[in-house]
Specification:
Elements (H helix, E strand, L loop, with lengths): L2 H18 L7 H26 L1 E4 L3 E7 L2 E6 L2 E4 L5 E7 L3 E10 L5 E12 L4 H7 L4 H18 L4 H6 L1 H17 L3 E15 L1 H53 L3 H12 L18 H10 L5
Antiparallel strand pairs: 1-4, 2-3, 2-5, 6-7, 7-8
């Protein structure tokens, strides 16, 4: 019974009381007229309320569970529908995509406590609204979705160490989503494609400190590797430079031992000469270089030309 029809029923009841007790009132004729007016208004309100109660409107994005004396009879789609007042009733169920946020606490494979924050996008299967209402009712978020999310996170988290949860975030998300999809599917609740988001992994303060210390140690190790590589490079450079000098000395020694070695010495002397005559004599002519020998060698085509 709608509110209008209920008020009309009350007016009819008041009109009946006034009509019965009019003889005890100071003005029975007036009381009779008032009772008649109240009765007419009550009948009209009951009629209008009954007509209004015979129709129900299902808004966009919803389905209505049609019940007869409380028993599920079927489902009504969007729009206006006729029902029998007092016999039929309806319960609206949203079938649009909905969002449920939750936090699940579980233990990792290495027994670290992990708190996971998730956001799940799901919807009710429009064709199975009546079945869902029969099994669960309208409180499916608290009765089905939240427990399914909690259990799925615990199952998947136990497969990974705490560090692996961070490294393999995408894989963990896929496995948790698959677990939730399987569990909710039994109740005609559909997880949207890529409908799960892991917004955060939160670990114990002790684990966070251990991770920070490990990162610092890794950075120091990388720095030491860089310093060692630089030292090795400098060492290799020095070795190569020393080998080059030794090879050059070897070639010079071989040139000195070969025929015309005196010309090599003369050329080096000329290259380094500053234009001043030496003060200490040497050789056949009193000089360090025998100019006459150089000229004779050049004219005869000897090596060193």
């Amino acid at each position: 019974m709608t509110g209008i029809a209920f008020i009309g029923f009350l007016l009819l009841l008041v009109a009946f009381v006034v009509h019965v007790s009019r003889s005890q009132m100071p003005d029975p004729a007036r009381s009779k007229g008032q009772a008649w007016i109240l009765g007419v208004i009550g009948v009209l309100m009951i009629f209008v309320g009954s007509i209004a109660g015979a129709f129900t409107q299902v808004p966009a994005g919803y389905r209505a569970v049609l019940m007869r004396f409380g028993a599920v009879q079927g489902m009504l789609g969007e729009g206006i529908h006729f029902i029998v007042p007092g016999v039929n009733s309806v319960e609206l169920v949203e079938v649009r995509t909905q969002k449920e946020e939750s936090t699940a606490t579980a233990a990792s494979r290495d027994l670290q406590t992990v708190s996971t924050s998730l956001a799940l996008n799901f919807r009710v299967d429009p064709a199975k609204v009546g079945e869902l209402y029969q099994k669960v009712g309208t409180q499916y978020k608290s009765r089905i979705i939240d427990p399914a999310v909690q259990e799925s996170v615990k199952v998947v988290t136990s497969r990974y160490s705490a560090e692996d949860l961070i490294r393999n975030r995408a894989q963990v998300k896929m496995e948790v989503e698959a677990e939730i999809t399987k569990r909710l599917g039994a109740y005609n609740l559909i997880v949207e494609p890529s409908g799960l988001s892991i917004t955060n992994f939160d670990f114990s303060p002790e684990f966070n400190k251990a991770i920070e210390a490990k990162q610092v140690a890794q950075q120091q190790s990388e720095q030491q590797k860089y310093v060692l590589a630089q030292a090795q490079l400098e060492q290799q450079t020095d070795i190569a430079r020393a080998k080059g000098k030794a090879e050059a000395a070897k070639l010079n020694a071989e040139a000195l031992r070969a025929q015309g070695g005196s010309l090599v010495i003369a050329r080096e002397w000329i290259t380094k000469w500053d234009g001043k005559l030496p003060q200490v004599g040497g050789g056949n002519n009193g000089y360090m270089i025998d100019i006459k020998s150089l000229m004779d060698s050049a004219s005869e085509g000897r090596p060193g030309r």
